[in-house]
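Hi R.,

Here's the chain you asked about this morning:
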Amino acid sequence: MAKQKEENTPFDIDEYLGKIPTMTSNIFKKRDVMRSTYIPENLPHRIDQIKFITQIIAPALSLENRSISNLFLYGKTGTGKTAVVYYVLHHFKMKCQELGREDIKTVFINCRDVDTSYRVLARLCEQIGEDIPFTGLPTDVVYEKFKTKIDDGKIGLLIIVLDEIDQLVKKSHGKKRPNKALYELTRINSDLNNSRVHLIGISNDLNFKNNLDSRILSSLGEEEKVFPPYNSLELEDILRERAIMGLKEGVLENGTISLAAALAASEHGDARRAIDLLRVAAELAERNEDRSITQNHVREAIRNIEHDKIKDTIKTLPLQSKLIMLSIYLLE
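And the predicted structure, written out as tokens:
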């Protein structure tokens, strides 16, 4: 009965929204820091990976050597692959600016969004100043335009990061031919006179290489690095650093971070999962006007996240699969 009364309580949306501009959070100090997409100045427990990638690309800064090895990084979701590459390239670009190396460029492409050879090559053209229509040209023509533009003497080295590269390969898998963009990009340096291209491939799929054409694999996988999952103690370190930056002092009850870390560690050591858990828990505490974040907030957060994941999964199912699920539900 009490629940019914609560649901029927009037809610003045205009009054609520009007309060927001002058409201001060009791929980958050810097909200954006608590998002898994935020790249901090320090990446705990990834020194080995940072050092490895830096040592691979550092020779590009030498005036005598622009040729560096292609690099392939893989590991499960939330193991820090993308964050480490962003981190290293940020410092690399700052050093390029300091040295006046305007001939070195970097391009970052997420292949989940840019998932065809045409789109990848068109995006590369766009990033180096070559206009390409969204569709309409043969892929071979787009590639030739890219190759001509990059070799015009203005760019000495182009570092291309292909995040979630497995999504690009899946589009070609089963067609009995290699992905056009990957095949050409892994061989482009032999056709260039004034420039060089360096590829960094990132994949969440540990079996990704099994789907690669052998001709691409031999060129793309010149250097490899596996990112292991974080353990519970490592995730605690990551969450504590985020909490110091993003949450107000004293709002975390004892055991809250440990619980969030343990829950994320049980799911293949996913740092994104851990950060999202703590952020959602903080948002729940704020929404409830609580003065601290408790373990109960973390437990509620994981229920909310699981619910959203299931809902999103069902939404993306084909109509036939949805009908089968509905039939099973009705039979029960």
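The chain has two domains: 47-226, 230-332.

Let me know if you need anything else.
M.
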